[in-house]
Amino acid sequence: MEKLRKAVSEIAYTQDHTKLTHLHRSLIPVLSFASSLYRLALSLRRSFYHYGLFTKHRLPVPVISVGNLTWGGNGKTPMVEFIARFLADSGISPLILTRGYAGGDEAKMLRRHLLGKPVKIGVGANRAAIAAHFFEKYGYVDPYSTSKYADGLNLGQKVGNHPSSQKIGAVVLDDGMQHWSLQRNLEILMINGLTLWGNCHLTPRGPLREPLNALRRADAAVLHHADLVSGQKLIDIELMLREVNKSVPIFFTKMDPCFFSDVGNVNSRKPLTALSNSIVLCVSAIGSADAFVKGMEKIGAFFVDRLEFSDHHIFQPKDIEMIRKKLRELEDAFGSKPVVIVTEKDYDRDPGIFKHLDHYEILALCSELKIIPCGERTEDSFKKLLKEGKLTR
Fold first, then answer.
1. Parallel, antiparallel, or unpaired: how do β-strands 339-343 and 279-284 relate?
2. What is the per-residue pLDDT for 279?
3. Above pLDDT 90, what percent of the chain?
4. Looking at the structure, do residues 92 and 209 belong to the same domain, yes or no?
5. Which of 104, 2, 166, 156 is nearest to 351 (CA)?
6. Distance CA 348, CA 346 (A)
7. Helix/strand/coil for 176
8. Please, are residues 208 and 197 in contact by the beta-carbon 8 Å criterion?
């Protein structure tokens, strides 16, 4: 199954068919047929919502949706954390609603990062029902109930440990672009600057979950991994986005490496410079392995190798054997023990699995999302968009 997933992913992100193997090309007719069925199902679903056959739920607090048009690797979860942290620090207790893929690795990471903040996390496919449960348990604050909210959310007063801090003041919808059953006040679209739309086909023939004209629904577009993209390409991408949505604000973000943690003690911290002359093996099962590896190369390791699996892959004993074999090859080649680097998401999926590589040092790279200033498009202007942009009735 893992080999099939890799083959489908390679087809999806290869625009020139001549570069594919004969086996991969033989899969294209089947994938194209499946994409046609997906397009039909997508059209029917959209029509059902348009004509009221499917219900759209309105929550009693503002909803900020963070989503994308393609498979993983677009920075959705780091952006959700960024927004939740901003709201919490500004005096609003947010509820994060996430589907919880593959054992909830993203939810686990969010809980660790936001520990101590007045942030609640609800996990489940029926996010309207999950939200109703949290509203019943904690209550909610209607941000429009008094005149002081007339110009948007009141983000000036911090609630701290006040009892009202338990009440939910906003919802952040993780992976919400295609979750049409919840109405939202702000639609933030995340885009992977390294891969964009792949071959521009709908899934499973390509990586698109919706046609590109869905860009018109976005209130803000965020180009992630912008630090790994050339200046000219950023200009070209922005022009491409403007052709579909002329007025959408476009922001640039990156993952900023902070430190390493030992997988045996996630609370430990090692500086990035600790691996400046090391042999490194990047092991990942995330949506954008290229960005992870490029980030490690920028840190300054002596040599960086990689071993990657499909997004949300749950590591098995056979995978550990594969990793161990790769490590022995690197050790024989360079005469010193390599260090294994994983992402926090991979660590949170199964914290214990990497302990089976006990003869090697295993570190998790801890990073945080940063907004890259570009003219007037700064972190402050993005926060202003969150505060005032669409969070009014």
1. parallel
2. 95
3. 68
4. yes
5. 104
6. 6
7. coil
8. yes
List Cβ neighbours of 326 (8 Å cut-off, separation of 6 or more): 281, 305, 307
Which residues does 82 contact at the CB level (< 8 Å), separation at least 6? 368, 369
Residue 95 CB burial class (10 angstroms; 0-12, 13-18, ≥19): buried
328: CATH? 3.40.50
Is 46 a member of any domain? no
Residue 383 sits in which domain range? Answer: 63-249+377-389
Which residues share a beta bridge with 307? 283
Q: pLDDT for 97-109, tens place per residue?
A: 998 765 578 898 9
Cα 393 to the chain's mean position, in Å? 28
Eight-state DSSP code of residue 343:
E
Q: Are residues 201 and 271 in the same domain?
A: no
Give the count of beta carbons closer than 10 Å to the beta carbon of residue 30.
11
Tokens at 244, concatenated: 């579909």
Cis peptide before 78 (omega within 30 of 0): no
Query: Which pTM value belongs to this model?
Result: 0.90
How many helices (H) does the chain have, and how many strands (E)? 10, 12
Phi, then psi, of 320 in degrees rounded to 5: -65, -40
Asked if 177 and 183 touch (Cβ cutoff 8 Å), the reply is no
Query: Are the C-beta atoms of residues 339 and 272 closer than 8 Å to each other?
Result: no
Is residue 40 in a domain?
no
Distances (CA, A) of 130 to 49, 154, 356, 363: 21, 25, 36, 34
Q: What is the pLDDT of residue 208?
A: 96
